[in-house]
Amino acid sequence: MRQRLDYLKESPSQTAGPYVHIGLAPGAAGFDIYRNELGQDIAGTEAKGERIRIEGVVIDGGGSPVKDVLLEAWQANADGIYAHPEHPGEVENGFCGWGRVITDFETGEWAFDTVKPGPVMGRNGQMMAPHINLWIVARGINIGLHTRLYFSDEAEANANDPIINLIEWTDRRETLIAIRQAGSSSYRFDIRLQGDDETVFFDI
Description:
Elements: H1 20-24, E1 51-59, E2 69-75, E3 98-102, E4 109-115, E5 120-121, E6 127-128, E7 131-138, E8 145-151, H2 155-159, H3 170-173, E9 177-180, E10 186-188, E11 191-192
Parallel strand pairs: 1-10, 1-11, 8-9
Antiparallel strand pairs: 1-4, 2-3, 2-7, 5-6, 7-8, 9-10
């Protein structure tokens, strides 16, 4: 006997919050569950290259910081090599190239320390400018958002990057540029979810 299912209605979409921190970054949420949490050490102690810090905030459409965001970062090392079996070349001992951070519950600020990646050879044989891939989830975001972070002091490489040049509106390309702070090794990269200065997100 065939059961009728036409009376069932679609359930609401589920989002990442409000318990995303407990499951993915419990230590930051005050839960001592794991001896070593994944994603806290991106580069390792033996990675060569310039040590840098990335700082920012995720801003909603009303201009307010979002305070329950989780970000994951994936990058190559200083030689432009990913720690992945399908990527040619070797990386330093301890370099995983992947990290996970959450925003501060009070301020919405986030930050991570790593090494500045080198240019990466793309699948089509074109050289890509140094960049860090970011994935963002938060309460109210049904599907994780993908974007990239490029560096303000790599202007020539950025101008020739094949991904940046896919963006038709040149003023929108600036939303992918992390700004180096004067006299330091820190970069500022604020992510805007909506509005006139909305960060460019990629359909992956």
